[in-house]
Write a structure and sequence with these properties.
The chain has 73 residues and is of the alpha+beta class. Helix content is 19%, strand content 34%.
Length: 73
C-alpha cells in the first residue's frame, strides 16, 4: 500500500494569499485566497483603495510577492 504525500494546504491549487496586517506586523487577516497572481493583484489593489494607510501583502506560501507600503515592515 503506497502512502500519499501529506497536503500542506487545504486549498490545493490556490497559491496566492492577500493579507491585511496589523500595525505591528505580528498578525494578519486573510482577505483573499487566489489561484492566479492576476486575481490576487486585483484584490490587493482594491484593498489598498479602500484603506490606503493599511498594510497589505500578497504571499505565495512563505514567499512575499508584493507589499503595501513598499519596504520592510
Amino acid at each position: 500500500m503506497a502512502l500519499s504525500p501529506p497536503q500542506d494546504h487545504w486549498l490545493a491549487g490556490f497559491n496566492f494569499n492577500v493579507e491585511e496586517w496589523d500595525a505591528k506586523g505580528q498578525s494578519y487577516e486573510t482577505l483573499a485566497i487566489c489561484r492566479s497572481l492576476g486575481l490576487a493583484r486585483a484584490a490587493f489593489k482594491v484593498a489598498i483603495a479602500e484603506t490606503p494607510a493599511g498594510r497589505f501583502m500578497i504571499r505565495s506560501r512563505t514567499r512575499v510577492v508584493k507589499r503595501h507600503p513598499e519596504g520592510d515592515w
